């Protein structure tokens, strides 16, 4: 064919999070059915840096943008590539698809037929025997041809007969039935005793058996395509073999195997139809909105995430999900089951890290640079406890692009520490007086206001920007965070890529800081959260810095949630404060003068945030946007929550597709891109600077 020419050229290849995108020289070898790449064109005569077999591969243009595409080999290896423009991407994709089709058909025509045989997949002996003996005829290799077979010369390969596929389908049905019986037998075991349904080996057996059946179904699908190719002579133009969706669907495992039938479009609740039909965000007003704190009311929501029942009931969903994941796999695009979600958005979770506004405001009251750095460290370490809701590891909603969250806190001035050593309140939550009553009759000057706004500024990669300020104290914090999730076997790791900046305008100081990684551990039993990694806080003007280590629990022994750190003066390399303890329990601060202070985080008073009622919120504010998902989760209706969540996600995909087709860039509302970061459109440092300039002009 004229279209089967070998092509070559430079493409960008995604390597990893650290290295990112790199230019590489790619060569499409049509004769061998290979895609090879080299460091550059000059090294083309050397051994390729990487090679992909294209037979059975899937070539997929990405919906991220008009330049990116992926090559998914049948071996499971993947290349994520980016062309210079849409035209070049189409050129590469079409040539790769033609080559892939050609070599996939060749395999279908040249593979030897399956031998007809009938046998039972049941183990010899008792069906309940834990040790399954496999007869030679039951070896999976005897069913499917793996790799290339060298045939005697001159022998013609007979065409696969339809009854062979019928035999294989019958064997598959038997295997699927036995796999269901296996899962049912394990789930019927008691939850306590010598051998339980929570036994780690049995849970892994359930997960791997699901993965095996999915793989076998994919192989059977390839056999069907090969047979169709032999009957018709060729595959339809432009098609490639693609992997099937899992045969054991998530929807069929919401109730430990009970099938779920979602209603048709016509029967969907009005709220779902509304979620799917909201106008494209860029067609709504993208002008920044000034939120009046007087419209905000003290938050009365108290959604504690302590329900372990859902995790126990939905164990088969977790196992099925794990069976489809690979070690180190990026979970950004993986749709997680609804029952593991918290009843709040990730943007609101960032706001909950500000639940001790008295400690935040007290930072700028420090009389020396050393005291201000120590106060910031104290505030930083106390923020994570309230940011987590309950002991169980659940995941907040993934914000959709353009989603925003607004809130504020009012802090009586008498409750904010003015001198060192009095930063922490000893009140317990039960002794706390609600702010709405506490502030009755007070004038505006009797309390400080901390305002907060967050926005999802990017979908791929998922980046959130958030900003908080206290105008009266001339201090603000700006941060952007990219949440990068990975599957780590029996846990999930989330890297918080990004940076924050605290500005104390009264002192002309800026503090940069990072965030620790988070891990969801024991995801097959009772999942729990721990933090890990090293974070740094630096103030270039004063020369003070802090190094904080969040320690993950060792495999044997050791304490949970341990944190250590120190604050030092960089010029003299003198340590002025050391800290140790648990970030969700008790922290011990030891100062250079020998004093020691203990902080019990469980007894720190929490200031409730103030949020506008739903009816006054915009359609893309977190609580209004996710209200139907949240209500369904509160009612325990997982199916309904899943339906509402799916509607929101589908709407976001449709909007993204429309923007790509019309080449319309996304417009953020509150944050502007500056370099690699995102900055609030009207930060306090610009406002104060402009006011000072006007005052100087007046004088």
UniProtKB/TrEMBL annotation:
Keywords of the record: Acetylation, Endosome, Golgi apparatus, Lipid transport, Lipid-binding, Membrane, Transport
Pfam families the UniProt entry points to: Oxysterol_BP, PH
GO molecular function, one term: sterol binding
Polar residues bias: start-end ranges: 117-137
Subcellular location: Endomembrane system; Endosome; Golgi apparatus
All residue ranges annotated as the PH domain in the record: 4-101
Subunit-structure text: Heterodimer with OSBPL9.
Family stated for the protein in its record: Belongs to the OSBP family.
Protein name, per record: Oxysterol-binding protein
Classification of source organism: Eukaryota, Metazoa, Chordata, Craniata, Vertebrata
Gene name linked to the record: Osbpl11
